[in-house]
Amino acid sequence: MISIAPLSSEPWGTLPGGDPVRLFTLRNTHGMKVAISDLGATLVSWHAPDRAGRLGDILLGHDTPADYAAATTYMGGLVGRWANRIADARFTLDGIDYTLDRNEGTNLLHGGTTGFHRALWDASEDNGALVMRLESPEGDAGFPGNVTTQVRYTLDDDGTLTIAYEAVTDAATPLNLTSHPYFNLTGQPNTDIRGHMLSIDADRFFEVDATMIPCNLADVAGNAFDFRQSAPIGARLDWPHAQLAVAGGFDHCYVLRDSSESAQSAGQVRRVACAYDPGSGRELTVSTDQRGLQFYSGNFLNGDVGRNGVAYRTHAGLCLEAGGFPNEVNMADQEQVIVRAGGVYQQVTQYRVDVRSSV
């Protein structure tokens, strides 16, 4: 029987404008604890045991709310209304053209300059779970409709952090939400993830153009992007591949195997990826009901100052972000990412951290 972890909270400083920020901590019976802030519904830290039982923080992060407010890495944040990129920060819906916040060249990235990751969320406790709620008004970053989003975090005794998303709107609007934690399973912030092993349950990925917008659907077979069998990230980063040069590493969306290929019903949570650090024994399993998984290898963490003044090196952390496809609002299957008035956006993603007893 699953046991829901207890929840505690404490003040966690203020934003530059004086708004107070709180930190909430979920714990399970094995000493694991996950800290989450109401600033950006952000995953701030995750202390998990290694093979010898020693606790270490497996998330990259910052020391204060002000540091998060100033950062541009989306570290641990809840990303919305649109995770990933929208080309030229525009789309057409029901014959109406919408222009969005351009915050990465000409594109919109991760909800814009003042996306969900920068907002103060309303937080409450529900039967041991942490529930975050946010109102996004009509015109937020240029998007139509008033949107109410609720995110529920639970930590189970088997080491599973479940993130359950739900959103409603009063007008048709695109929605694509995700969480953006940077994992380093060594628990050592001055290391990188090149030694991590990674597997992703996908046969195809989106190649990108020079502005990181998907331009072609490609097979993973026979190249650096093939993680159908567990492979070391560092060795794959060193492969010669034009797409790695474009992105400075991996920053690509994988098309997860669909329900028929994975023997799962549509919309059902299934295991889609696994990362493993042989040194510590820590293993991260990702499960989701989404169709896409963005693998980002921390290509631009080049001296960004993190917790305790540590300067994160390139590839200091990896992100596995479940959601829709980048720029899908401008693709032929646009309707997949549109929530109509009276409809409900729902998503479930689970990160489970466990330990292998031997390599």
Structure, described:
The protein is mainly β. It has a single domain (7-355), classed as Beta-galactosidase, Chain A, domain 5. It is built from 4 helices and 29 strands. The protein has helices at residues 65-70, 233-237, 242-247, 259-262; strands spanning 7-14, 20-27, 33-37, 42-49, 55-57, 78-79, 85-86, 90-93, 96-99, 108-109, 122-126, 129-136, 147-155, 160-169, 173-174, 178-179, 197-200, 202-208, 214-219, 231-232, 251-256, 270-276, 282-288, 292-296, 304-305, 311-312, 319-323, 338-339, 344-355. Strand 18 and strand 19 (214-219) form a beta hairpin. It is globular, with a radius of gyration of 19 Å.
Beta-strand residue fraction: 35-45%
**Quick one: biggest sheet?**
9 strands, antiparallel
What is the average per-residue confidence, as pLDDT, rounded to a whole number? 94
CATH fold assignment: Beta-galactosidase, Chain A, domain 5
Overall strand count: 29
The parts where pLDDT drops under 50 for at least 5 residues are 1-5, 259-265
Class from secondary-structure proportions: mainly beta
Helical content stands at under 10%
At CATH level 2, the architecture is Distorted Sandwich
Number of domains: 1
Radius of gyration (CA) equals 19 Å
The shape, in one word, is globular
In CATH's first tier, which class applies? Answer: Mainly Beta
Termini, distance in Å?
29 Å
Strand order of the largest sheet: 11-12-13-14-29-23-22-17-20
- Count of helices? 4
